[in-house]
Design a protein that fits this description.
By secondary structure, the protein is of the alpha+beta class. It folds into two domains: 82 residues, ATP Synthase, domain 1 (Sandwich); 51 residues, Single alpha-helices involved in coiled-coils or other helix-helix interfaces, CATH 1.20.5. Strands 1, 2, 3, 4, 5, 6, 7 and 8 form an eight-stranded mixed β-sheet that branches. The radius of gyration is 16 Å and the shape is elongated.
């Protein structure tokens, strides 16, 4: 039997995924991570973007708005303010958020703080990358 690792992906609202997987891939603040069973314990911050889990040779994709990733030898826990299956990411809303954030960055009189606009832009771009990657994966 192949070795597996238990993964929990949890948002502030609900549990998004819980189950045994072959591997987990995520974008940490310091770079990309590939986590396999018996990985060294680790605690790190995640960037907004994609989390992928490999289950029986098939990849499942999720979007997280950032958060924390904890790795224990047999358990990976991802805690995010927002987490959703990649299929559930709303492309129209992400494009609108991107445009609003770009507009706010250009408008020096905007009510939105510059750092907040940058964060919203990064989150919208991460959502759009997840959508794009998901589409490319389905084409193969």
């Amino acid at each position: 039997m192949a070795m597996t690792i238990h993964v929990d992906i949890v948002s502030a609202e609900k549990e998004i995924y819980s189950g045994l997987v072959d591997a987990v891939f995520a974008s940490a603040v310091m770079g990309e991570l590939g986590i396999y069973p018996r990985h060294t314990p680790l605690l790190t911050s995640l960037k907004p973007g994609e989390v992928r889990v490999l289950v029986n040779g098939k990849e499942e994709q999720f979007y997280v708005s950032g958060g924390m990733l904890e790795v224990q030898p047999h358990v990976v826990t991802i805690l995010a303010d927002t987490a959703m299956r990649a299929d559930d990411v709303d492309e129209a809303a992400a494009l609108e958020a991107k445009e609003n954030a770009e507009r706010a960055l250009k408008d020096t009189d905007a009510k939105m703080e510059y750092a907040e606009a940058q964060a919203k832009l990064a989150e919208a771009m991460a959502q759009l990358r997840v959508i794009d990657r998901m589409r490319k994966g389905k084409g193969h």
